Amino acid sequence: MQKTEQNVIEVKDVVKTFNVFYDKTNTLKEKLLFWKRGKKEIRKVLDNISIYIKKGEVVGLIGTNGSGKSTLLKLMTKIIYPNKGSISVKGKVTSLLELGAGFHADFSGRENIYFNASIFGLTRKEIESRISSIIEFSELSEFIDNPVRTYSSGMYMRLAFSVAINVDADILLIDEILSVGDQHFQQKCFDKLEELKSYGKTIVFVTHSLGQVEQFCSRAVWLDNGIIRMDGNVKDVVNEYKKITV
Hints:
This protein is of the alpha/beta class and 246 residues long. It has a domain at 7-91 and 170-245: Rossmann fold, CATH 3.40.50. 36% of the residues lie in helices and 27% in strands. It has eight helices and nine strands. The longest helix is centred in the C-terminal third of the chain and has 16 residues, at 183-198. It is globular and about 55 Å long. The model has no long low-confidence stretch (mean pLDDT 88).
């Protein structure tokens, strides 16, 4: 996909590396047995990749564990930054990258709604006008005034998703969070995403569910060891991916 004025996300020639440090050795025996300890390894997670995403596209990022999918999503949100290359994102972004990220464990669900929504840029007045809808969608009214440290992973997901879809973002970035929770709420989330898709929102999500990609996405990008193996039509990309993974 080439660079155009319609692009809302542009990832250009991006390289991302991480330093991996091994534990230090203390004794001679450890030095002989665990000679790598105390050393630093530079691990390249993304290797000179470019992706251009247009407004209204729904893009599924697929690939095995460690292929660089989640790192790419974090770069798009500017949680982390590339070692080389550039990333441009145009429009208001909301993200669901790590379950409960941004939640304060000792705050109640209601307090966390205010806290998270304000991070996404909503004023207190805007939050108050939407809080009933957020709580209703989450189906957590019975627990909304309990500390979120008492919530299950599914309850975390419900609350996080409910806040994220109510902040009027142009771009929604999701990392595997929809794999958590019961089937009923997962379907409810996808119904809501279909609605946002119909409004022309741009959605990028990481998933291991090829069925979700085929059902929901207009485009698929296959990452393999930090490079783009294939990018394009969902059916074509998924079929090729299945040949080496199924």
